[in-house]
């Protein structure tokens, strides 16, 4: 995978999901600054999306990526990004991922509705870091969105 940024609120599960997708055994802690993984996979801090004064930092971080993966936790009651923020760059693919579907208070219908209400088109991929099949489905989907490599 390359040219992909993962965005979402604090504790949406971005770092844990990236670790599963790129098969990395890193200790997941609080992301304080963007983390650039080989192949240009970017893990962004949740504050970049939640704190309006840091929205500019998010926009700078995602300027060069082709795909933005938006995590909407299944147990969240709101969509944390300001309206239109993720559509500033019209040439980006925006993928909606519903994370934490295994939480006891998860509501995937509400999460899908929040994504849809905020202009994130489906399909919405449901994931849990405890379900390898959901991670594999997301990985395969993201691979289909990768730009063609010319040799």
From TrEMBL:
Cross-referenced InterPro entries: EutP_PduV, P-loop_NTPase
GO biological process: biogenic amine metabolic process
Pfam families linked to this entry: PduV-EutP
SUPFAM superfamilies xrefs: P-loop containing nucleoside triphosphate hydrolases
GO molecular function annotation: ATP binding
Keyword annotations: Nucleotide-binding
UniProt-listed PANTHER family: ACETATE KINASE EUTP-RELATED (PTHR40453:SF2), PROTEIN YOEF (PTHR40453)
Family: Belongs to the EutP/PduV family.
Protein name: Ethanolamine utilization protein
Organism this protein belongs to: Photobacterium aquae
